[in-house]
Amino acid sequence: MSRNRCVDDNKPGPAQIKHYADRARDGTGLIVSEGVFIDWTGCGWQYTPVMITDDHAAAWKKVTDAVHEAGGKMFLQAWHPGRCAHDEMPIAKEHKAQVLAPSAIKANAGEYRDLPGQPGHTANVHAIEDPKTVIETYRHACILAKKAGFDGVELLAQGGYLPQQFLNSRANKRTDRYGGTVENRCRFILETIDAIAKVFDGPDAICVKICPTDYLNDSVVDFGEMKETYTYLINEMVKLRGYDPVLDFGKLVKFPGSPSKLMANNDYTVGEADRLIKEGKLDMIAIARPFIYNPVSNPLSKDSQYKLT
Ligand SMILES: Cc1cc2nc3c(=O)[nH]c(=O)nc-3n(C[C@H](O)[C@H](O)[C@H](O)COP(=O)(O)O)c2cc1C
Q: What's the CA gap between 301 and 158, in Å, rounded?
C-alpha cells in the first residue's frame, strides 16, 4: 500500500526495509509491494518508489533480502498511472516527463495534494505513439525487479491507471490495433502480461489486479461495456495463460481442478478468508489496511492488538 516515504531518489531505504520485513513475519503468505512507478512519465505522486535504474533495483534488493530472511515472499506491484500523472509535479518537471495516455483525453476529477491549489487531472496529456514502447518499459522494470530479488510481479490494472485506460472506450479513442474493438482495447494488457511473464519464466509469478466495477480516476463505463470488456479479458487470460476468472462481476467463481490461483480483496477478515479458502471458492485473500497499522505491524501476529477476527 502506497506510503509515499521514499525520499532518496524515490528509492526504498531503511524505513521500507523494516516496514516490509516486519510484515513478512508471523506467517504472511505473500507481500505485494506498494505501487511502484515503472517510468518517470508515470510518476503521479511524490516520494512514491520507482523501479527505473539499477540503483533502484539495488535498493529494492535490500528489501526483498530482508523479507526473504523473515520467511516471506514478495511481488513488485508495477504501476503506471498514465493520464493520472501530473505534468506540474516536481518529479515530472525534473525528469521532463510527459503525461502519457492511450489518447490525449483528460481524466475528470483528480486531486494533487502536493500542487498549489490542488488541481484536478492535467489536460496536458500526450497520446502514446507506439504502445509497444510502454510495454517495453514494463518489461525493463520487471527485469530490474527480478534482479532485485522479487518473487514475481503484480500488474496494477485498475484504479483508472494506464492499463485500465486502454480498456476504457472513453479514455481510449485509438484507431490502431490498441483501440476500438474489445479485442483491441484488451491488447495492451494481454501483451504486457506476455512480456513480463517471459521475464519471470512463465505466468505463475504474474498477478493482474483488475476491478471491473472500478470508479476511481474517471474509470466508470456503462454495464454493457464493462461486461463485454472483462468477459473477453478474463477469458483470454484463462484461455491463453491459465488464470482463473472472476465471472459475472462480484460472483467469485473458481473452477474445480483449475491449475491457477484466484486472489480477492476488499474488507475481508481472516475468519472470512479462512472460510472461503476452505470452501474452495478462493485461493488467496489480500488484506491491506490492517497491514499498515503502527506500531504493531502484523495483524496475523499473536501479539497484535489489531487482531482480525
Ligand atoms: C493508504 C492506502 C494505500 C493504498 N495503496 C495501494 C497501492 O499502492 N496499490 C494498490 O493496488 N492498492 C492500494 N490501496 C488499496 C488496497 O490495496 C486495498 O485494495 C484496499 O485497502 C481494500 O482492501 P482492505 O479492505 O483489505 O484494506 C491502498 C489503500 C490505502 C488505504
A: 30
Say how many Å lie between the CA of residue 43 and the centre of ligand 1: 18
Q: What is the pTM of this model?
A: 0.87
pLDDT tens-digit map of 48-89: 999 999 999 999 999 999 999 999 999 999 999 999 999 999
Q: Which residues are the active-site residues? A: 161
Closest CA to 159 of 115, 196, 213: 213
Q: CA 101 from chain center: how many Å?
A: 17
> Is the residue at 278 inside a domain?
no
Distances in Å between the alpha carbon of 261 and those of 17, 127, 201? Answer: 28, 35, 17
The answer to whether 254 touches 282, Cβ cutoff 8 Å, is yes
Indicate if ligand 1 lies below 6 Å from the C-beta of 1.
Answer: yes
pLDDT tens digits along 177-214: 999 999 999 999 999 999 999 999 877 889 999 988 89
Q: Calculate the dihedral angle through the C-alpha atoms of 51, 90, 98, 34, rounding to the nearest 10 degrees.
A: 30
Measuring CA to CA, how many Å separate 79 from each of 33, 100, 176? 11, 13, 24
For ligand 1, say whether the CB of 35 is within 6 Å of any of its atoms.
yes
- For residue 282, being part of any structural domain is answered with no
Question: Residue 53: which CATH number?
Answer: 3.20.20.70
Range of the domain at 129: 14-261
Pocket flag, ligand 1, residue 267 (CB < 6 Å) = yes
Domain membership flag for residue 241: yes
Q: Is residue 273 part of a domain?
A: no
Report the domain count for the chain: 1
